[in-house]
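Quality-control log, excerpt.
Job 1 of 2 completed; input and output follow.
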Amino acid sequence: MIRLPLCAVALLFFVQGMAQEDSVKTKQLEEVIITGQYRPQTVKNSVYQVRTISRERIIKQGATRLQDVLMSELNIRFNQDVATGGSNITMMGLTGQNVKILIDGLPLIGRQGTSNEININQIDINTIERIEIVEGPMSVIYGADALAGVINIITKKSGPGRFSVNARLHEESVGQEYGIQQGIHNQSVGISYRYRNWDLGGQLGRNYFGGWKDTAIGRELVWHKKDQILGSGYIGWNKNGLNLRYRIDGLDEIITNPGNFDYYQSSSGDTLALDQEYLSQRLMHQLQGSYFVNSGLSFQLQSSFTDYSRQVFSTTVSQKTGAVRLNTAAGTQSVIDFTGFSTRGTALVRLSEQWSVQPGFDINMESGSGERLKDGTNKVNDYAFFVTSEFTPSKKINIRPGLRFIKNSVYNAPPLIPSINTKFALGKDLDLRISYARGFRSPSLRELYFNFFDANHQIVGNPDLKAETSHSFTGSLSWKKMEPGKVAYTTVIGGFYNSVKNLIDYAMSANDPNIFQLTNVSDSRTAGFNLSSVAKYKNVSISAGASYTGFFNDLSETDKALPELQWSAEVNASVGYKWVKPGLDLNVFYKYTGKRPSYILSGSDILLTSLKGYHWADITLTKSLFKVLSLQAGVRNLFNVDRIRNSVVGNGVHAANGTRSIGTGRSGFVGLVFDWAKN
């Protein structure tokens, strides 16, 4: 039985009721999306159920990182890695290895850690124009890692005027800790300029997180310190249907992990501490071009090259003298470099009023080198041809089948990946979407070849891994009303089911129980349902939603008496109100992440564990000043969440079984946002 907070249930009904009221005459503009589309079009006309997060929403939330925004979305959860500063995402019940992260439609390179996931907090949030989320397999269009869906980061192209300047300052405590070396101190500045057929711009910022001490003793930190420098620039040219654009994004990140004086004691009585730094650098080049020949023919070509490196740098510190020396012990130093090249091209051919075809090719080549990779250097190349077709026999029916043909340099990929997406207009404001897709995820270069041995880890890659494949079904019913003189509202009810074969995960080595090797451990299934509503009335905007997700219980394969899926609920809501004359904007963002039960094997006993649910809320107040400046203040993590406990139920005994870090407690923040434009 789903037990949702009473206030969230009441808000769902309120949103539905408010959608029937009249308001003053206003005109709402439909959101335009591009992810997976033949051409930019509205959310309503897309065969995919797409969620969008606007730049305005990001600013209103006072977000300093992408995780701040996404964690309030339904069907998205995070596991925080306090050591490396990463965040492991779960989407539609599947882990982040199955979520494709794109920047302007091109894949981001640099999966890291034992979880093999992209660290989304290495993306500069100040360059984001909007975020488009497509749930469900997008493997036909975007290839590997898109089994759970796609998160496409759309960057800002130019400012509102011919010449524009933007800047942002953000100061925030980390829990109750704040100071020159503590808390969050972020600065960012950007410019853009348009002249005739040219536009260009850039952004430069620094994000500083001083770590979180909390209950740690000595020099240690519960959450490690992080310092990021982020920069980007672009130049574009557009004339007579030809559009060319080059973009560069850079990252320089240092995560500092100071240790206590308990690492080593010499014969002279001196005690040493082990300090480690995780150094990440990324440089991503993008070149994109499109050419519009006529209404029946157009072309698009996208390419990117990424150089990403991650270094572990370890030193020892003397307690007596403070002397710092390089640590030469095994496993304490490492450098791994990854390079990735992606290029994809498509042609859109309109054969008739009812029938369009889009053929395309997709090439992805990734190589890595470093002492933790097998043989020092490895590479994986993926080549694909895909074709989709859009058939609209009437204005009420849209059918889009697709096929992807794959060739991989290392593994036996499925030779053919099919999909079919359909949309039926059941009424003027009522749309039904049903889709099936055959998804796949190829083993990553890290999963195939990455070996890591130190005092805490003994992990071995597996070059014999098979690709994960899936059969996935999604469906949604959406009701959308946007009329002058009426409340603008949208209600969506949907569901999904994924059946995954050859799931890749860690398993104990048969030769050594202390070594864990990646292997195709089992088959898996996930399922879920969701309901969401959004309404806007005068100066009020309200949204509310609920979901129920079933996570796979892998022990059900060996014990048929156990349930196959373990269900967990989520609820989210947001309320915003704007006072026009004084220029005040108040926003509240809330999410409840429900208890997540799961079964574990302890010796010969199967135990039921339960990760506690928690409430998260952010409150922001924005005041406009002098048209170009706005002052922002707020409270993040209103319910003061830091760790949640994982309880174990077995043999009639209830016991604690560790905690999981979620946040750093309640914090306060203030910020200034500057936007100036001249035509």
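Job 2 of 2 completed; input and output follow.
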Amino acid sequence: MVTKLERLQVLERQVARLQRRIHRLEQSSDRYSWVRVGIFFGGLALSGLIFFAFNRWLGTIFALLTMLAFLIVAHFHNKVERSLTRHTQWQRIKSTHIARLHIDWDMLPDVPPSGVLTDHPFETDLDITGPRSLHQLLNTAVSREGGMRLRDWLLSRTPDLPTIQQRQALVRELTTMTLFRDRLTLNALLARRNIVQQLEGDRLLRWVNQPPPSSSLLPLIWGSIALSALTILFFVLNLFLALPQIWVFTLACSFILFFTTARLRGDLFDDASYLRYAFAALGTVFEYLEQYRYGSHEQLKQLCAPFFSEPEQRPSVLLKRLARIASMASLERNVLLRVIVNILVPWEAYGAHRLRQYKAQLAHALPTWLDRWFELEALGALANFAYLNPAYTLPEIVATAFQDPQTGVMNVAPASHDNTQTIFHAEAIGHPLLADEKKVTNDVTFARLGETIIITGSNMSGKSTFLRTLGVNLVLAYAGGPVNARCLHTQAFRLFTCIRVSDSVTDGYSYFYAEVRRLKALLTELEQNKPFPLFFLIDEIFRGTNNRERLIGSRAYIRALAGHFCMGAIATHDLELVGLADTIPDILNAHFREEVVNGQMIFDYRLRSGPSPTTNALKIMHMAGLPVDESDTV
């Protein structure tokens, strides 16, 4: 099996090769720049000298040859510049992969800004979005919509098993297709560079769907053709049969018709230029997906079928048609020629008519193309995550024990339902946002629904990190991505956490009241008649109040969870809570511990069964130099 170190070494060699190539291209570009300067000024000086001192014709010919040489050198210089741009972007892609491997937040691209959902059951607690988040670590999408789609997958509140299985199949296929994924990213980066902003397909889609200023231009086209035909006819009759100059009046009618119908035609030049320009940027990506040879990659081929399944609706065909219309519209730059041509033939009316037709075709095809591209970018992010972390695995997610395997109908089981099947089992599960050198993995199993694990342990022993480890891996699993575990078998759950609670000065909430509100929201979610059980993670329950009331409230709250349509883990410092396992069979105890070696506190971050045998608060205070009197009763 390929290791993460081997992936890193391959990427570092690729970056080194690209850096050498970029250096050579920069030197070549510099040489071309000096040659162009020399040709321009040297040729200009010699041409002037020959023109005035020797022969004017010879000087003119030399000037033309200088111009030709300058254009040839400029052509090759532009090729070098394009190659330099591609290599620079390619190096950026590979360097970003290395940053993701090292979890180097400073070198990772920022994620698109988006508001935090304050009432979300796990977004903030598990660092799913925002800076230094799971979304930032995963997101390789160039388009804003692709990144937001990945975010939506990570924040999904209700897992959908068929969708998860479909995504897993695509991620499994895309993981080995590194060149395809990176070239798709490269094309999108080059397109974004051309429009100097992040690619936003929705903006183009809104413009395409804007209604035209008139229902049809065909009457205008036929009217213009009729007037032009009459003008030609009357002109010929006047020329050969001495008929009165009626053609002057029909020509004037054509002139008036052209200027009075400008609103109906719209701004052909601006519309055609924008459509060609905006779609060409996306077309770089779409044509790559259209022309790619998918071979045996059936899942990917099916996903990308809209780009090539209809020959007349392919992106490349539509792009060529739009280019022709844009060329027609360029006549608008020459005012005199524009008027003459449009009086004789309905040039702009026909162009506007064809543009509307292509616009309608684009309005029909573009939503599907954009949807598949955004889907592919989100899937590519998950696949890239799997590629960079070869030890991670795609989890086994099965239908819950309460789902009819024949009909697929979900049924909520009563709280007393006895399910003896293991419904969550993870081996070597770790936190994907932690660097490998700081990460410790653990095994954990929930054997039945209604089970609650009370996790005790000293300060800094790893309780909170373990809770987040379980939660963030479930988020990855339900998004369809790989998880940081040797193996993970789980059924579908609704996830709810209470880990990072904060007070609110603006809303007038104290810390304790904010925590009470969050815990109440968890119970409310549990009481909902929904098909999936609740998987809860609670850190330091009721930490915002005194010892006596915290203990009374914690016992009552845990009893309200244990044995019901849920399961989860609660981390606490209150060792008195471990006694609940003696009276409630659905409660288990686990703990983390520490050792003091040579005056230093050592944590191994290993989860062990049973209640914690030690505490370390007084040790930490003593080691920090604070006064401690262990004879006092706390």
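Post-run check on job 2. The first strand starts at residue 396 and ends at 398.
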